[in-house]
Amino acid sequence: MTFGEASRTFKSMIYRSKQGHDYSRFSGWRLIALIAVYFAYVIWYTSVGPFGQLTRIEGYTYLQGRGFYTGADAVAAIDSLSVLERRLKYTALGLDLIYMFLQTWVFEGLIAFGLSALGLMKTRWRWLLILPMGFLLFDMLEDSALALVLATSSEFIGSVAGIFTTLKFAFFLPLIPISLGLAGVGSVAAILRKGKPSGSSN
Q1: For residue 189, what pLDDT band results from cuts at 50, 70 and 90?
Q2: What is d(CA 123, CA 202) in angstroms, rounded to the nearest whole number?
Q3: Domain for residue 201, yes or no?
Q4: 117 lies in a domain?
Q5: What does the alpha-carbon distance between residue 20 and residue 135 come to, in Å, rounded to a whole number?
Q6: By the 8 A CB rule, do 78 and 89 touch?
Q7: Residue 79, class by beta-carbon neighbours within 10 Å (0-12 exposed, 13-18 middle, 19+ buried)?
Q8: Which helix (H) or strand (E) is 26 found in, with range?
Q9: pLDDT at position 191, please?
Q10: Number of structural domains, the chain?
Q11: Which domain holds residue 114?
């Protein structure tokens, strides 16, 4: 899936959100299953998976976990890898695509659930759903740039990758409290709504 296709899917999702309290698409077993798959994948990827293997390489600096790095930092980190370790890095970058899509869907799901439960999906608050797409865009660009650094050892491309990493975190870090906060408040609203007697006016 390209970014353009992902963006069109996102716009279509917003367009179909016509009912303020219709959050079944992002609640119940669907949201729970998505979160379960996300955590299962992250645990595998960061332990026995390629990411975990890279972090255990002595002397290797994992660039994507840093807030910013220079082109020289990127090239130095890549040059410290052996041929086999470079292949592992390529594999990790490829599998990171799965992580970033899962992370984006989790953010989208939690935010949409909260907005729908609060009756805000038809208001300007719905534009919060753009934030996960920003994270996805810059994470994809970051990985693409790092793959080019692997192939070219270019400090210029490494500097570009560092900028993309910073922009990725500029979206990622605020999304954590936003998505969890909306999901929490939305859950409370849903519980109160279910507990409200039918036909009650107050």
Answers
A1: confident
A2: 23
A3: no
A4: yes
A5: 26
A6: yes
A7: exposed
A8: none
A9: 86
A10: 1
A11: 22-189
Q: Are 137 and 10 in contact (CB under 8 A)?
A: no
| Single-letter amino acid, residue 46 | T
First to last CA, the chain: 47
d(CA 17, CA 123): 11
Least Cα distance to 118 among 63, 110, 39 occurs for: 110
State the residue for tokens 């970033």: 100
What is the distance, to the nearest Å, from the Cα of residue 158 to the centroid of all Cα atoms in its chain?
22
The tens digit of pLDDT for each residue in 85-95 reads 999 999 999 99
Q: Contact, 133 vs 10, CB < 8 A?
A: yes
Q: What is the pTM of this model?
A: 0.81
Do the Cβ atoms of 167 and 143 come closer than 8 Å? no
Find the DSSP H helices in the chain: 3-16, 28-46, 50-55, 71-79, 83-117, 130-152, 155-195
Does some domain include residue 130? yes
* Distance, CA of 11 to chain centre: 17
Using the structure block, give the residue that is written with the tokens 């989790």. Answer: 106
